[in-house]
Write a structure and sequence with these properties.
By secondary structure, the protein is an all-alpha fold. The protein has one domain (7-333). Helix content is 77%, strand content 0%. The protein has twelve helices and no strands. The protein has helices at 7-38, 44-56, 65-72, 82-101, 108-123, 131-162, 168-208, 220-236, 239-248, 254-274, 280-295, 302-333. α5 (108-123) packs parallel to α12 (302-333). One of its GO terms (biological process) is phosphate ion transmembrane transport. Keywords: Membrane, Transmembrane, Transmembrane helix, Transport.
Length: 334
């Protein structure tokens, strides 16, 4: 699989990358719709259609900074070849399917990053890693849920103060409507950040095969294909994870759902603008915990939250290990 690829094999690898994009959308559909479903503002199937639409149109709003980070900022673009891309995708897809089956809201983003790191280490060693890009992404593992937590907590307190004299029914009615806006913004941020990761993978594969010339960029057809794949995956839904995200961490009201989605959306918008590939799962989980803790600390099921955090910690090492094994297997049998 080294060197130049015949066209059918190149197309097959791009198809695998798009399959990851669809699985990513399916796995992370819960991030976009868990709150609006759990507060019963929208039925699940209407909610996924709503989220899929905003996932798809995200390319109209954001640049391609995250795609450039994934394409050239995790492992050196010069060492990328078909084996490495295949191994990275297999590691990420395997981990996504395992965590989806058990209903664990792990990070598709960090699964892909772990796959790239594992493939790069298996091929070249530590010199393959772009440490500045990996450090920025690793910092976001901690900062994105904390930011989502803090923003959601602040929003809940602000809303509680602003509507202190309103009736519970009136507040509920306002924020049931408001959740349409907040869920739209979160889905937009999700599509803007997550779909770009697959764009970066496909673009660096094309670059490694000489299809982009001497300068790395993301072709428009890759943008459209990845946004469509993300939207399709969201339509397929991720019901196991919706249950965990929407009800097992804390019980949500429309006000809390609005604050969680808005806090998460602001975090994603900032990260996408800065070109940082953050985890939408981490972000919305932090925001949901934030609104639960604003009510009372005991309002959060910390045992569930602890299990989710543990999944975050082991995602990159596990996907890196799977990716490295896949890379070595391609050398043995390829």
């Amino acid at each position: 699989m080294d060197g130049s690829l015949v066209l059918p094999l190149l197309i097959a690898l791009i198809a695998v990358a798009l399959a990851f994009d669809v699985i990513n959308g399916m796995h992370d559909a819960a991030n976009s719709i868990a709150t609006i479903v759990s507060t019963r503002v929208l039925r699940p199937h209407y909610a996924v259609a709503w989220a899929a639409f905003f996932n798809f149109i995200a390319f109209l709003v954001f640049g391609l900074h995250v795609a450039n980070t994934i394409g050239t900022g995790i492992v050196s673009a010069e060492i990328v070849d078909s084996r490495l891309i295949f191994a990275a995708l297999m590691g990420a897809i395997s981990w996504n399917l395992i965590t989806w089956y058990y209903g664990i809201p792990s990070s598709s983003s960090h699964a892909l990053i772990g796959g790239l790191v594992g493939g790069g280490l298996a091929k070249v060693g530590f010199s393959s890693i772009v440490w500045s890009g990996l450090a920025k992404t690793s910092a976001a593992i901690v900062l994105s849920p904390l930011t989502g937590f803090g923003l959601a907590l602040i929003l809940v307190l602000m809303v509680s103060w602003a509507f202190a004299r309103s009736t519970p029914y009136g507040v509920d009615l306002i924020f049931r409507t408001g959740q349409f806006l907040s869920a739209s913004l979160y889905s937009l941020g999700h599509g803007g950040n997550d779909a770009q990761k697959t764009m970066g993978i496909i673009a660096v594969l094309l670059y490694s095969q000489g299809y982009l010339g001497s300068e790395f960029y993301v072709p428009f057809w890759v943008v459209i294909a990845c946004q469509a794949g993300m939207g399709l995956g969201t339509l397929m839904g991720g019901w196991r994870i919706v249950k965990t995200m929407g009800s097992q961490i804390t019980r949500l009201t429309p006000v809390q759902g609005f604050c969680a989605e808005t806090g998460g959306a602001i975090t994603l918008f900032m990260a996408t603008g800065l070109g940082i590939p953050v985890s939408t799962t981490h972000t919305i989980t932090g925001a949901i915990i934030g609104v639960g803790a604003a009510k009372r600390v005991s309002g959060v099921r910390w045992s569930v939250a602890n299990g989710i955090v543990m999944a975050w910690i082991i995602t990159i090492p596990c996907t890196a290990a799977i990716s490295a094994l896949c890379f070595w297997a391609t050398r043995l049998f390829g």
